[in-house]
Amino acid sequence: MAYTHLLLEQKENILYITINRPDQLNALNKQTIEELNKALALADVNPDIRVIILTGSGSKAFVAGADIKEFASFGVDEGRMLSRSGHKLLFDFVENMSKPVIAAVNGFALGGGLELAMSCHIRVASDNAKMGLPEVSLGVIPGYGGTQRLTQLVGKGKAMELIATAAMINAAEALQWGLVNHVVTQEELLAKCEEIAKNVAKNSPTAIASAYRSILAGFKKGVNGYEAEIKEFGQCFGTEDFKEGTSAFMEKRKPSFSGR
Ligand code: COA
Question: Does the model's pTM come out above 0.90?
Answer without folding.
Answer: yes
